[in-house]
Amino acid sequence: MRRKEEKQIKRILMRSCPPEADREKVDALKCELNSRAGNMDLQVCAPGESFGTRILRQMPYITGWVWMVQAAVVALLGLAAGQNMTDMEAGMFFSLAAPILALLPVVDIVRSYGHNMCEMEAACRYDLRQITAMRMCIIGSADILLLTLGGWLYREKCGSIWEFVLFVLLPFLASSSLYCWELYRFSAGCSGFVLLGTGILLELVCYPVLRDVYLRMTAEHPEQIPAAVLSAVAVLSVILACLAVRLCAGIKGRGLTRAGRSHTVGA
Amino acid sequence: MRDEEMLERIRQGERQLLDLLVDKYYQDIFRFCCYRIGNEHAAYDCAQETFLHMLRSVAGGVEIRSFYKYLMRVALNVCRDYYRKNPDAEVWPEEEPGEDAGGVRKGLPHRDLDGVLRPCGTETESGRKIEDAYVIRQCLTRLPDYQREAIILYFYYGYKAREIAAATGVPLATAKSRLKQGLDRLKKIFREEGIYEA
Question: Which of A45, A105, A153, B109 is the most buried (most CB within 10 A)?
Answer without folding.
Answer: A105
